[in-house]
Amino acid sequence: MRISTEKLLLFTSDMLVAAGAARNEATQTAEHLVLANLKGHDSHGVVMAPSYVGNIKRGFLDPKAHSKIVKDAGGVVLIDGCAGFGQVVGREATAFGIERARQNGIACVGLRNAHHLGRIGTYGEICAEANMVSIHFVNVVGHEPLVAPFAGAERRLQTNPFCAVAPRRNAPPIVLDMATSFVAFGKVKVAFNAGKKIRDGVLVDHNGVPTNDPNVMFSEPGGAVQPFGLYKGYGLALMCELFGGALVGEWTMQPEHERTGTVINNMLMLILNPDVFGGTERFQHEITAMVDYLHETQPARGADRVRIPGEPEREAMAERSVNGIPLDDRTWSELVDAAKSAGMDVAEIANYSG
User: Fold this and answer.
1) Cβ-contact 265, 123 below 8 angstroms
2) pTM over 0.90, yes/no
3) Res. 354 pLDDT band, cuts 50 70 90
4) Is residue 72 pLDDT above 90, yes or no?
5) Rg for the chain (alpha carbons), in Å?
6) 40 — alpha (psi -120 to 50), left (phi > 0) or beta?
7) Which residues does residue 299 pair with via DSSP β-bridges, in sequence order?
8) Is cis: bond before 221, omega within 30 of 0?
9) CB 98 within 8 A of CB 107
10) What DSSP designation does 117 have?
11) Contact 114, 295 (CB under 8 A)
């Protein structure tokens, strides 16, 4: 099915309100999720909403929580997300960091104990709107690991995102936003929901044998997602674990910590003002010239053109804004079930499916 942006946004927001969120926080969270769908990142879109509803009901997500400053050393700030909506506390921490970067030229913000932050690129885009460069190291804790280390057959890590964003004058920013696993786990979930095989290199079974079947991640004894780029992705995932988790959250995937089935993100965020380096003018000149140089590359056989990070998302958004957001039957069924469990009635839910 295809659903309009407006209907999906209202449905998701109403579902979160029914589960106990205030309207403002529900709308902010829903906007973040639906924007991820619009940009083609269905793994970080409304497919996550049922887990949010479940975590509210289990007491793992406080839908009314806001961020709280724990330590303030001027350019370095530690913020506690208080297990609130990551989309709410993440935006609050980003806004605070931008203001400090304006004052000091640079801000190092640690955000710990946030419920699932969603698509990390969103926070980088907020920084870019303020003409700031940003770098984000994120770890994921609270549930069983999903990703095998390089040369391993057992799960030891999560999909730990890394993100770096550069602003562009009079143009959308360059957004590198990636899981350190071969793909985000949500993409495995999307393939599973749609009954599709997953591409080569993504998964191994419990013996470490490559497989294209996403069912290995949802059945015992269980497989694992592979890191991207072999040892390179594994190494970057470990750095996200240590910087986002050990340094900021004081909570990594090592087995001393309880795994209750929730989703908690810890993030180390560096926000830099180009004015305190070589200056914005020179920085923007080099960005423009470099992007032009890349765009002028002759396409390889089978490719239409060379893109920069962030362009595929903008192309997906242009198409989906017109034609609606695609949802497979299983994902829609899970959304309907979550809405019912949140307290919405069948007739109310039916208004969103047309």
Assistant:
1) no
2) yes
3) low
4) yes
5) 20
6) left
7) none
8) yes
9) yes
10) -
11) no
